[in-house]
Each structure stands twice: as structure tokens, then as C-alpha cells.
Write the C-alpha cells for this entry.
Amino acid sequence: MWLHRGCVADVGVFFLIYIYIYIYAYLRFLRVYVYKHLFIYLLFLIKSKYLETSATNCI
């Protein structure tokens, strides 16, 4: 096993790599999540604005 007794450097490096991968994956997931919801929100805004203008044009 590469993890020796009393070798704290290996644990530190492994921990840093783990945190880096975790943060990278979380930020990637967050970006996709935010983009998806932003796209849905923009569609909703465009749709409501379009319905609002078309309703006022009919009157």
C-alpha cells in the first residue's frame, strides 16, 4: 500500500486531490443546473412578454 504509517504528506496530497476533484465536479454540476434554469426562466419571460403584447394587440 502506498500509504505508509506516519506519512502525513501522502494523506495531505490525497486529500487535496480529492477536494479539487470534488469542487470541480460540484462547480460543473452547478453550472449546468444554473444554465438549465436560466434558460427555462428566459423562455418563461419571453413567453409571458409575448402573451402580454399579443393580448394588448387584440384589445
In short: Residues 30-59 form one domain. Residues 16 and 22 are 10 Å apart (CA to CA). The chain has a mean pLDDT of 79. Helices lie at 8-58.
